[in-house]
Design goal:
The chain is of the alpha/beta class and 416 residues long. It has twelve helices and 18 strands.
Length: 416
């Protein structure tokens, strides 16, 4: 019988999500005689030990050989010769997790990374992007309401569920605000869900640029709306992902027509930014609030100066000197940037994540593997697998962590 352990999250600050909910564990036990889920005790998890026990799930310290987590596992908590699934943030050679990958190799661990689980067409299988979009959009709208004094929104984490959050929008009256949404993946889907719940009207990009409205509107900019080839002046999704440096961004006209930017685009260092820092200093740059849900410091939103905490999600950027300030000052742009947004709705986010895990991942793992699992396996028994041999120098003991740029793609790429 396969024993799957749900580990407690050890990274600080503590993450309160879990890979499988008590109800999902109960369903697995009911529908399979070959799997046993065991839960490591945790005081910070959004589902209590008692909830798991009541669902018939054993809670103890010895939790088997196959471990499911969420965030990076602290090096001192890694158990040698086990198999782990979590977001390791190593595939892009992020400096902050270089020692983690080295330890995984030294301890002969098999690591399957959620971020690397992809369908045949390259579409990500699993992630928390939808709820990142939901929470990020709410927080962006909250920040704009606070800046303008035109309405008030409470914090998401004060609600027990997404359903309760929806109820807080009843009777909400928004001013004639213009909102531009970037991206087409799970993050953008979450943002659009909030736009619809708040009864913000969708309009086409050309109409958005050309017309004034007496009611709140948003437009969604996808790949072809945002990027064009520098020479051919067209857009090919496949070519763009292979050669993003050959493209330029067409976003800037929307900066002079928008009050709020909700950013959820995939970004890597060769992908064109939505705008440059100096553009934010121009008088035609009308955006007052930016919810950078993708949250790449200096990335697609170059005035993202680093993320904040759930408790304090918004800061300002001075329009003249581009330095960090307190939020809501007259001469600043407000930035909402938080790296763990789904933690504000942890029970819903965990349920969503577990559904994907049960549907697309666990069956393959329990049946002995698949091409999808193999392509997401970064290390096997302490050795880098063929698709990830490019990480050899990165993980070498003699290669100290660099101080270079750390890219953590969170939107259509990898939201954790």
């Amino acid at each position: 019988m396969a024993r799957i352990g749900l580990i407690k999250e050890g990274k600080i600050p503590a993450d309160n999500r879990v890979s499988l909910t008590p109800a999902q564990c109960k369903w697995i036990h009911k529908n399979s005689n070959s799997v046993k889920i065991i839960v490591e005790s945790s005081l910070t998890r959004c589902f209590s030990d008692r909830e798991f026990s009541m669902a018939g799930v054993e809670v103890k310290d010895d939790i088997g050989d196959f471990f499911l987590g969420i965030k990076e596992v602290p090096i001192e908590q890694l158990i040698p010769k086990k198999t782990y699934l979590f977001f390791s943030h190593t595939r892009k050679q992020q400096p902050r997790n270089q020692k983690l990958l080295r330890a995984i190799l030294d301890k002969q661990i098999t690591l399957i990374d959620y971020e690397c689980l992809e369908h045949e067409d390259g579409q990500r299988i699993i992630g928390f992007g939808f709820f990142a979009g939901v929470v990020g959009a709410h927080n962006g709208m909250m920040a704009y309401g606070t800046r303008t004094g035109t309405y008030q929104l409470d914090r998401v984490y004060k609600q027990r569920s997404f359903r309760e959050l929806i109820h807080t929008y009843f009777g909400l009256r928004l001013p004639k605000v213009k909102i531009v949404v970037t991206g087409s993946g799970r993050v953008a889907h979450g943002v659009v869900e909030i736009m619809n719940l708040m009864e913000v009207v969708e309009v086409e990009p050309d109409e958005y640029l050309d017309k004034n409205f007496s009611y709140p509107v948003y437009t969604q900019l996808k790949g072809a709306d945002l990027y064009e080839h520098k020479i051919k002046k067209n857009y090919s999704r496949e070519n763009f992902h292979l050669h993003p440096e050959e493209y330029q961004c067409k976003f800037l006209p929307y900066a002079s027509e928008s009050d709020i930017l909700m950013n959820g685009v995939y970004w890597e260092k060769d992908v064109p930014r939505l705008f440059e820092k100096t553009d934010a200093q121009h008088e035609n740059f009308k955006i007052q609030t930016i919810a950078d849900i993708a949250d790449d410091t200096g990335g697609s939103v170059p005035i993202n100066l680093g993320d904040q905490s759930i408790e304090d999600p918004v800061y300002g950027v001075d329009r003249k000197n581009l330095q960090k300030t307190a939020p809501y000052l007259p001469g600043s742009i407000d930035i909402m940037a938080v790296g763990n947004l789904p933690n504000e709705l942890p029970r819903d986010a965990s349920r969503y994540f577990g559904e994907q895990l049960i549907k697309y991942v666990l069956p393959d793992i329990l049946s002995g593997g698949s091409d999808i699992i193999n392509k997401a396996t970064i290390t096997r028994n302490g050795e880098l697998t063929e698709p990830f041999e490019y990480l050899k120098n990165y993980a070498a003991p003699s290669n100290p962590p660099s101080g270079g740029e750390s890219i953590h793609t969170t939107s259509d790429g990898s939201w954790d």
